[in-house]
Each structure stands twice: as structure tokens, then as C-alpha cells.
Amino acid sequence: MRRAAVAVIATTMAVSVAACGKAGDKKSDSSSSSSGGDKASIGLLLPDSVTARYEKFDKPYFENKVKELCSGCTVQYANANASASTQAQQVSTMITKGVKVIVISAQDSAAIKSSIQQAVNKGIKVVAYDRLAQGPVSAYVSFDNVQVGKLQGEALLTSLGSKATTKSKIVMINGDDADPNAGQFKKGAHEALDGKVNIAYEQSGLWKDSVAGQKVTAAITQLGAKNIAGVYSANDGMAGGIATALKGAGISGIPLTGQDAELAGIQRIVAGTQSSTVYKAFKPEAEAAATLAVDLAQGKSISSLATTTQTSGSGNKVPSQLLTPVSVTKANIKDTVVKDGLYTVAQICTADFAKACKAAGLS
Predict the structure, then answer these.
(1) CA–CA separation, 93 vs 80, rounded Å?
(2) Within a 10 A sphere around the Cβ of 179, how many other Cβ atoms?
(3) How far is the C-alpha of 33 from the C-alpha of 38, rounded, in Å?
(4) Among 300, 362, 309, residue whose Cα is nearest residue 337
(5) Strand 326-328 with 277-279, pairing
(6) How confident is the model at residue 123 (pLDDT cuts 50, 70, 90)?
(7) Alpha carbon of residue 213 to chain centroid
(8) What contacts 211, CB < 8 A, 6 or more positions away?
(9) DSSP alpha helices (H): ranges in the chain?
(10) Residue 32 contacts by C-beta under 8 Å, 6 or more apart in sequence?
(11) Virtual CA dihedral for 65, 71, 74, 75, nearest 10 degrees?
(12) Residue 191, class by beta-carbon neighbours within 10 Å (0-12 exposed, 13-18 middle, 19+ buried)?
């Protein structure tokens, strides 16, 4: 079930291209290149600021890689703050600014289709980042999202142990249906769980901790607190709301999954209120997107980078690069997120978690 984190790092190395200019430029919005397109402007549009990863990790990793590859390039950044209409306006703004490439993690993959078409009509290349947007996208970078769901489901089954039977009632809280990744996570999780446990309650948590908490509270009312064997949560953000709801209902010691390896999620795993998460290393994903964006801006072929194809909701066949996710439990925190430098032991093991960290071998 687990995959070595080093495999993800290897993927990053595979997608790197020779730098076309000096590295180490300290300007916040530039990056390096000495060939055609060395003055290109690249737009980066991320979906929300609630999910911790985007502004803390994805944005700086992307900007730094563009800097490394293209000293004359600039990165224009905007965050949709979970609004599809805001993101559509941001695409229009990028078109007006004359960017050569837009890298976008769609807030709503279907709603953004017309905006992407408008950008392409102006000669702008579009890279779908993390979520496969609809429309004429030139490239897509993400993880194997069905595999993410499988890892989550398998981790839940492992945590259930002998309780992983068709009599065990599982609550399943999926992501937002507007996000195409949510459907893939759900598909993979069902492949792992169907026929092995009883999914007695299944709803969307819309990627919001408050909504997820409300859904689980409703599930507890419907099923009974003593009858819930475990909870599938599609990401760590929702798992936070779910953990609070479970605690409020006096439920403890049952498996709870997650995704994104958020610091709060890792701390819950240490404390035992969450059983697992899925680590999708942000740096290789962001750097792969930056490499594709610079190559497209410079008119280079991306065939050696985007080596597979994914079909979007609009039927477009999109050259894609899919990276490998890693399941994280208490047993391999040190060998994954700590080893990769995502978090230090000190960041994880604050005063509230010191005792649990010592018991987990992290002190």
C-alpha cells in the first residue's frame, strides 16, 4: 500500500529540464531562461486559500522553479478564494495582461471551460494543475487520483483490522462534485471498500470542514454513535471538522482517513484522532507544472514530460503527467513528510503533541 517517498522525488528529477539561464534570482516574481520566451509572463491561478497547501507550498515552489528556468519570466498570481466566478474573472484579467501560459487549478472544472476557450482563442496555452479542467487544455499535471482513493480505502481497512467486515458501518464523506478529482478519489475508495465493509452513509462535504462535520453529525444521528466503525474523509481539511464532530459525540478510537498531509492532519495522526492521510508531494507537482509552463511559453515540445493522456469532462484528450501518491500513517511520518522536509519534528511536536510524539518515536 505504501510507496517510498523517494519515488516521488525521482519523478521530480525526471521532469526537470536543463536550466536556460542563471538560477538563484531573488526577485519574487521572476524566473530564468535565455532562449525564446525569456520575457514570458505566466499566470498561476489557484482555487482557494482554505486548503493550506496552495499558498504555503504550491505557489512558492512553482514560482521558484520558474525563476530557476527562466530569469526573464514573470509569474502573475491570483487565488479564487473558492469562487468559480472570481476565477473566471481572473482568467479574463490574465488574458488582458498578455500572459503566454495560464496554469490553473480549477475551482469548478466545468464552469471554467468557456474561460479557458477564451484564453486559447487569444493564443494562450493552458496547463491544468492538480485538477483537470474542461476545455482545450494543453497539458495536465496531477497525481494518480484513483490511486489516492485506493490508498485511503486500503488504509481504512488496515486500521479496521478484524472489524473490516460487511457488517461494519462506514461513513463516507467525499469532496466537492465540482472538482473532477473528487470523483476519482471516490472511485478509488469504492474500489478498495466495496464488498468489504458496509458504506452506510455517504455524502459530499464540499471540501469544507464545517460541512463535513455537519454531515457526520447527521450520520451519527441516523446510524447511532456505537454503530459507526470508521469514517472515510476525502481530505485532511474535512477530517478536522469530522474529528471535532466525533469527539463531540463521544466517539473515539475509530479510523478516520484524510489527504494532503496537512500539518494539522499529521498532528491528529500522532494524537490518534486520525488514522491516515495521503501525501502528494507538493514540490514535484508544482515544479512539473512550472517546467511545462516554461516549455510551452518557449514553444518547446512537452512530449517527454507529459507521457500519458487523460480525458477531461468535456471529452478533450489532454497530455498528462501523473505523479505517485504515498499513504502516511503514524508508522511512516518520519520516513515521508519529515524526510522530505515538508515539516520538521519540532513543527509537528508542539507542546500539545509532545507526549504523543514521544510515544510515536518522533521526539
Answers:
(1) 12
(2) 25
(3) 5
(4) 362
(5) antiparallel
(6) very high
(7) 21
(8) 204, 205, 238, 241
(9) 5-15, 52-53, 59-69, 84-97, 113-121, 145-160, 180-193, 209-223, 236-248, 263-271, 282-297, 345-348, 354-359
(10) 19, 20, 21, 22, 23, 25, 38, 67, 68, 69, 70, 71, 72, 73
(11) 10
(12) middle
Number of neighbours of residue 303 by Cβ within 10 angstroms: 8
- pTM (2 d.p.): 0.78
Mean pLDDT, the chain, integer: 91
111, three cell numbers = 464552469
| Grid cell digits, residue 66 | 520558474
Q: Are 31 and 71 within 8 A, CB to CB?
A: yes
At 78, give phi and psi (nearest 5°): -150, 150
How far apart are the C-alpha atoms of 232 and 191, rounded to whole Å?
13
Q: How many CB atoms lie within 10 A of CB 159?
A: 18
Q: What is the mean pLDDT of residues 176-184?
A: 93
DSSP 355: H
CA-angle at 88, arms to 84 and 93, nearest 5°: 140
- Could you tell me if 234 and 206 are in contact, meaning their C-beta atoms sit under 8 angstroms apart? no
C-alpha distances in angstroms, 341 versus 214, 268, 271? 34, 19, 21
Rounded distance, CA 343 to CA 266, Å? Answer: 10
Closest CA to 149 of 166, 172, 133: 172
Residue 140 · residue 310 · CB < 8 Å: yes
Q: Report the pLDDT averaged over residues 144-172.
A: 97
